[in-house]
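A.,

Following up on our hallway conversation. Structure tokens first:
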């Protein structure tokens, strides 16, 4: 797991979800690291730092922008993706689908999340004593070219 800033709630939530998902695969070792920001440069810098102690077989990056920075660093190291190192991002931003990037990523149902957020805010305004509510939405893996199937 290569996340954004360690203190960010989004980073911690994504790491927790990743841990929970990997629990079904006890043979996979989980290591984690955190970039200074959710940015191209931070992803690149963190991957270069990680390469000093040896690369993992694959990385789940907490954001597509981080992933693209990771891909850039791996290219400079002459590492073949996904043959030597697999990468999966999160958010399915438009750039992830560009031909020269072709990032495997996870798409979130953004329109549903926004509609639900607005609905919950209106409900809280109408009912100030309303108990807070959390909603989870299914995500979808968008398979492209940066992650090979597990054998």
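Then the amino acids I'd put at each of the 151 positions:
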């Amino acid at each position: 797991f290569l996340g954004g800033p360690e203190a960010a709630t989004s980073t911690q939530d994504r790491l927790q979800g990743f841990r929970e998902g990997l629990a079904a695969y006890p043979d996979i070792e989980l290591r984690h690291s955190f970039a200074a920001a959710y940015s191209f440069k931070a992803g690149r810098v963190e991957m270069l730092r990680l390469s000093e102690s040896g690369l993992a077989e694959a990385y789940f990056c907490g954001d597509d922008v981080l992933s693209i920075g990771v891909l850039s660093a791996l290219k400079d190291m002459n590492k073949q993706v996904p043959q030597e190192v697999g990468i999966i991002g999160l958010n399915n931003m438009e750039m992830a689908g560009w031909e020269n990037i072709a990032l495997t990523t996870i798409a979130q149902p953004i329109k549903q999340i926004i509609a639900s957020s607005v609905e919950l805010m209106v409900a809280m305004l109408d009912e100030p004593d309303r108990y807070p509510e959390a909603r989870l939405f299914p995500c979808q893996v968008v398979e492209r070219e940066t992650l090979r199937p597990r054998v």
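Strands lie at 2-3, 33-34, 58-60, 86-90, 104-107, 140-142. Curious whether your intuition agrees with the design.

B.
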